[in-house]
Amino acid sequence: MAEQEERLLMLIDDEPAQSRLISALTAREGWRTLVVKDSETAIATLGTRQGMQLSAIILDQWVPGDDACQLIAELKERRPALPILMLTTSASPLLAVEAMRAGATDYLVKPVAPDRLMQALRNATTRETPKDELTPLTEKMPADLDFDSMIGTAPPFRDALAKAAKAARGHGPVLIEGESGTGKEMLVRAMVAASPRTKAPFRIVNVRSIPANSIESVLFGHEKNSFPGAFDRQVGVLQNLDGGTVVFDEVDRLSPELQQRLSEALTKRSIRPIGAKHSFKVDLRVIATSNFPLTDLVATGNFCADLLDVLAGARVVLPPLRDRTSDIPALTRHFLGRIGEQPGLRELGITEPALKLLSAFDWPGNVRQLQAVLFRAAVFCDGAALTAGDFPQLSQLLGEFDGPASQGTEGVGVQLYTPDGNLRPLEEIEADVIRLAIGHYRGRMTEVARRLGIGRSTLYRKLGDLGIENAA
């Protein structure tokens, strides 16, 4: 039900190449981009006819420099409802805090992947989303690197850690599966830190972030003039990591042809660059991650069975947060402790009603989403502890879930008519029904989808289309 009409974006950026890239990306989703090159022009533009038509602003921090937060605050003062996304090269938590307090909707560290940028823009401009409570924030805190830092006592989670710890001590391949946000990268780093190759070369290859037409060259390397544009010889990642560990993040995103070639190379322990006549023997520890069960992808013909055989020497499955809700209080207190150590923030407590609210939600974005929500809540909290009121969107989604009355149907209904006696729009009624179902089933999205007679993916799509939530 998403609107398709053209929307106007103001991009505050003085870098032509980046401006062209962002304009092209946003145009694919119906955005027209107005580029301004300085703060004064941006402020003046708000008062123009075009300025009144703006739906969002993207600001490159480089333009106003140290005055970026001041510019954000001034823009928000003039147009409070206008979402502002800030691009920056700094990963400083203090800058993130200051930008969010000034009014930034999201904070993106360059170089930002195109899909991350577009997701942030979609989240920021979804209709009726109160304060973007669930906007996925870029990670601001350094990751822990050992198994002791993996918080949780739920049996499926501890079983996964035990398998990972055992596999870490060997040299064989490991496949880590689990939904986005379950902590696969953190587990990878813990395994590498505990492995015999901890001091050897190590690299995570994010398959999603490498263009499909260049990933073969990145992995295997190429000889000079082996293809148009190959002006120099390039040594590939796999050859450079000889004796170390390579991690294929989201390995399922490799093309079928590259999956087959990688399978053969890993089986033979031999790498042949593009255009080369000879191969190079390599000794690699291989770890791969996937957001989806690869066995299912093989069954549907969407993944190479030979490559799965190579990768799955040991298999670790990280459970989603909805299957380990007993860990949410411990995870929450752990994250709040780490958030409190960041510049510009302080350690906060959390009330039992707030913990109960967090535990009732389904967390489709898993642990990463929980951390992002806590970070945002901590930025704006004035008290000594987070309360349920610090999570307005969760409260809206779940409603009054405390007490036996919430499990009944007395007094529950959906308004069908407007005050003037006309029927309400269908999408508003549908949104109310979904909100009612989420509250009634205490945020258990699998149950909500089952009772509504739709799939989970359809449910989450509807949540986004109807502006009910922006889950990661």
UniProtKB/TrEMBL annotation:
<dbReference type="GO" id="GO:0000160">
    <property type="term" value="P:phosphorelay signal transduction system"/>
</dbReference>
<keyword id="KW-0678">Repressor</keyword>
<keyword id="KW-0547">Nucleotide-binding</keyword>
<dbReference type="InterPro" id="IPR025662">
    <property type="entry name" value="Sigma_54_int_dom_ATP-bd_1"/>
</dbReference>
<keyword id="KW-0804">Transcription</keyword>
<dbReference type="InterPro" id="IPR002078">
    <property type="entry name" value="Sigma_54_int"/>
</dbReference>
<keyword id="KW-0010">Activator</keyword>
<dbReference type="GO" id="GO:0005524">
    <property type="term" value="F:ATP binding"/>
</dbReference>
<dbReference type="InterPro" id="IPR058031">
    <property type="entry name" value="AAA_lid_NorR"/>
</dbReference>
<dbReference type="GO" id="GO:0006355">
    <property type="term" value="P:regulation of DNA-templated transcription"/>
</dbReference>
<keyword id="KW-0597">Phosphoprotein</keyword>
<keyword id="KW-0238">DNA-binding</keyword>
<keyword id="KW-0535">Nitrogen fixation</keyword>
<dbReference type="Pfam" id="PF00072">
    <property type="entry name" value="Response_reg"/>
</dbReference>
<feature type="modified residue" description="4-aspartylphosphate">
    <location>
        <position position="60"/>
    </location>
</feature>
<dbReference type="InterPro" id="IPR009057">
    <property type="entry name" value="Homeodomain-like_sf"/>
</dbReference>
<dbReference type="Pfam" id="PF25601">
    <property type="entry name" value="AAA_lid_14"/>
</dbReference>
<dbReference type="GO" id="GO:0043565">
    <property type="term" value="F:sequence-specific DNA binding"/>
</dbReference>
<dbReference type="GO" id="GO:0005737">
    <property type="term" value="C:cytoplasm"/>
</dbReference>
<dbReference type="Pfam" id="PF00158">
    <property type="entry name" value="Sigma54_activat"/>
</dbReference>
<dbReference type="InterPro" id="IPR011006">
    <property type="entry name" value="CheY-like_superfamily"/>
</dbReference>
<dbReference type="InterPro" id="IPR001789">
    <property type="entry name" value="Sig_transdc_resp-reg_receiver"/>
</dbReference>
<keyword id="KW-0963">Cytoplasm</keyword>
<protein>
    <recommendedName>
        <fullName>DNA-binding transcriptional regulator NtrC</fullName>
    </recommendedName>
</protein>
<keyword id="KW-0902">Two-component regulatory system</keyword>
<dbReference type="Pfam" id="PF02954">
    <property type="entry name" value="HTH_8"/>
</dbReference>
<dbReference type="InterPro" id="IPR025944">
    <property type="entry name" value="Sigma_54_int_dom_CS"/>
</dbReference>
<feature type="domain" description="Sigma-54 factor interaction">
    <location>
        <begin position="150"/>
        <end position="379"/>
    </location>
</feature>
<dbReference type="InterPro" id="IPR027417">
    <property type="entry name" value="P-loop_NTPase"/>
</dbReference>
<comment type="function">
    <text>Member of the two-component regulatory system NtrB/NtrC, which controls expression of the nitrogen-regulated (ntr) genes in response to nitrogen limitation. Phosphorylated NtrC binds directly to DNA and stimulates the formation of open promoter-sigma54-RNA polymerase complexes.</text>
</comment>
<dbReference type="InterPro" id="IPR003593">
    <property type="entry name" value="AAA+_ATPase"/>
</dbReference>
<dbReference type="InterPro" id="IPR002197">
    <property type="entry name" value="HTH_Fis"/>
</dbReference>
<feature type="domain" description="Response regulatory">
    <location>
        <begin position="8"/>
        <end position="125"/>
    </location>
</feature>
<keyword id="KW-0067">ATP-binding</keyword>
<keyword id="KW-0805">Transcription regulation</keyword>
